[in-house]
Amino acid sequence: MKNIFLSLSFVISYLWVTGQEQKLTLQQCVETGIKNNLQVQQSDMQQQSDEINWKQAKLNLLPNLNGSVSHGINQGRSIDPFTNSYINQNITTGSYNLSSGVVLFNGFLLLNSVKQTSLAYQASKMDWQQAKDNITINIILAYLQVLSNNEQLQQSKNQLNLSKQQVDRLETLNQQGAINPSELSDLKGQYAGDQLSIINAQNALESSKVTLCQLMNIPYNKNMELEKISTETLATKYEDTPDKIYATALTQLALIKSVDLRKLSAEKGVQVAKGALFPTLSFGANTNTNYSSAANQETFLNSTSVASTDFVTVNNTQYNVMKQVNNYSSQKIAYGKQLKNNRFTSFDLSLRIPIFNSLQARNRVKQAQLVLKNFQIIASATRTALQQNIEQAYINMSSASERYKTILDQVKAYSESYRIAEVRFNSGLGTPIDYLTAKNNVDRANINLINAKYDYILRIKILDYYEGKPLW
Fold first, then answer.
1. pTM, whole model, 2 decimals?
2. 141 within 8 A of 212, measured Cβ to Cβ
3. How many CB atoms lie within 10 A of CB 341?
4. Is residue 284 within 8 Å of residue 348, measured between CB atoms?
5. In whole angstroms, how far apart are CA 6 and each of 1, 2, 18, 153?
6. Which of 39, 138, 181, 205 can pair with 149 through a Cys bridge, CB separation 3.0 to 4.6 Å?
7. What is the pLDDT along the chain (472 residues), one digit of tens a residue?
8. Which contiguous run of DSSP H or E holds residue 444?
């Protein structure tokens, strides 16, 4: 067993290490986050609870069936359950009952309760889906932030390499006395600044990884690598309009389906409350039997003539009057026979009419109507908020697209300026100030381009989410 355990531990460790070396995709991160997220798990349990309530509401339509058994010992003077007469002896008794009942009509309360709980269960499933959608959006945002910070780190490293090459070149020239020492100092200052940028970029990258791991609810892994996302959509224009996106979202989004189902469930809740105002017609059936240890059965044996205390006189002679006496033998009645002989069955119809119960039923109707009104307001407000969010998301997407295109042109222009400044500086015609200015401009533009690119991708993902499109 020990060897098996060690072998299994080795296999698990190997799979874990192998898995860590692979790049995580966006889909894998989302699926892991959904599986481990607390809110998603709680929403899942809530929809399971509502499913149980719905099934119970359906079962409430069926007749009930209950049985009871009682056994006792009576001492002294008591009533014999078999003969219903007083006896003075120790006896054991038994009583058995089986009863059933069903509601025939109660203002359709039970039927409307089934519909109400069914709608609540469907709404809970939509809430569960919405919880998964929420964690999906958050993980996409964190995933893109990791990719963005990783590219910024690579860009900072490229900037550092260029600065290092220039510092090495100027140190050689300075040793030869071919340059002003201040030029070398300026480049060393730029080199130190680029090193600081790497430190900041590395810290931002690790912080974004921590955030992503927290959303997935897994331990932080410093060596975690993510698969890059295709940027083909950056060259295409988002075709759908806000109105079309909103119309699609109304039919696709779990949030809208949930509030609509909650509203319908509240409508059925009003009907359930009104059902308590109607009479309740019920049908019941009952069967009983009992047992007593004092129960005896008399069996006829024969008849004999015996002298009585009465007499007659014949010729001055008294003769006793003879009378006929029947002789019986007493026997205990068997247990099973008593249960069979003592069985009786009853059926009944009952009508319960609510006349006055402190107006509880009517006040429940008013409370249910307030709940319905609240869900109607929530449904309307949710639609308004959704439309506003889509309009804002579309504006943000359009702005991000224009910003990305503008910064892309800026990078091209600054790259050309930097190329010229580098050639002039390397040939001794340009000053360090001109070179550093051109370098800082192109470095800043490249960082801004990375931010703009991932911001645009995020805005597209948000609109895709509203339309129910695949997010990976």
1. 0.80
2. no
3. 13
4. yes
5. 9, 6, 18, 41
6. 205
7. 444 443 444 334 334 434 445 789 999 999 999 999 999 999 999 999 999 999 999 999 999 999 999 988 877 777 766 667 777 777 888 899 999 999 999 999 999 999 999 999 999 999 999 999 999 999 999 999 999 999 999 999 998 998 888 888 888 888 877 777 888 888 889 889 999 999 999 999 999 999 999 999 999 998 999 998 877 666 677 888 999 999 999 999 999 999 999 999 999 999 999 999 999 999 999 999 988 887 777 777 778 877 777 777 777 777 777 778 877 777 888 888 888 888 999 999 999 999 988 999 999 999 999 999 999 999 999 999 999 999 999 999 999 999 999 999 999 999 999 999 889 888 888 888 888 889 999 999 999 999 999 999 999 999 999 998 888 7
8. helix 432-466
For residues 338 and 295, is the Cβ–Cβ distance under 8 A? Answer: yes
